[in-house]
Write a structure and sequence with these properties.
By secondary structure, this protein is α+β, with helices and mostly antiparallel strands. It is about 50% helix and about 15% strand. The chain starts with a helix and ends in a 6-residue tail after the last helix.
């Protein structure tokens, strides 16, 4: 089984991503970011669903391995195990594809478990991150590139009127 460590944090930490969070590939205006939310939420839900299934199957396989160990061996329905492993592989690919699609748009997945996305935005010659968390109706917060979720601030007029630099 492949590790899912990179799914825990986000697509920019995926193997061979090649992008550094502090140097965004593109920037978004607030309006552009808001227009992308329906598509991004759908992709994020697909990634979360895939990750959840992967964790479920991993738990089942770990439990099976533990039972085999404790019993000194046991009868295993190899067809059922193979089926679950195939389901896991498909779920992993769906999650990777969804995260890769989000990444290709230029949006940063910061936390897949809570559905946290950042949109690079150019404001007064400086890059800031428009911040959205799944469940929020709209993008209403931003933070500096070195602040993270804890440093979220309400969007002010300066952020709202920013224009795209690239």
């Amino acid at each position: 089984m492949l590790p899912i460590d990179w799914l825990l944090i986000g697509s920019c930490h995926a193997p061979a991503c090649g992008r550094i969070d502090s140097m965004p590939a593109r920037t978004f205006t607030l309006d552009e970011a808001k227009m992308l939310l329906p598509v991004l939420e759908s992709l994020l839900r697909a990634a979360i669903s895939g990750k959840k299934l992967m964790e479920e199957v991993d738990g089942e396989l770990q439990e099976l391995s533990h039972r085999i160990f404790l019993n000194g061996g046991t009868h295993v329905d190899v067809v059922a195990v193979a089926r679950r492993k195939a389901e896991r592989a498909k779920a992993e690919q769906r999650a990777k594809d969804a995260l890769a699609e989000i990444d290709s748009i230029g949006v940063q997945v910061k936390d897949i478990d809570i559905g946290l996305l950042d949109f690079p935005c150019e404001v007064d010659g400086k890059t800031v991150l428009l911040c959205w968390k799944m469940g929020e109706d709209s993008i209403t917060h931003w933070h500096g590139t070195d602040e993270g979720f804890a440093g979220r601030k309400l969007i002010d007029e300066r952020i709202a009127r920013s224009k795209r630099a690239n």
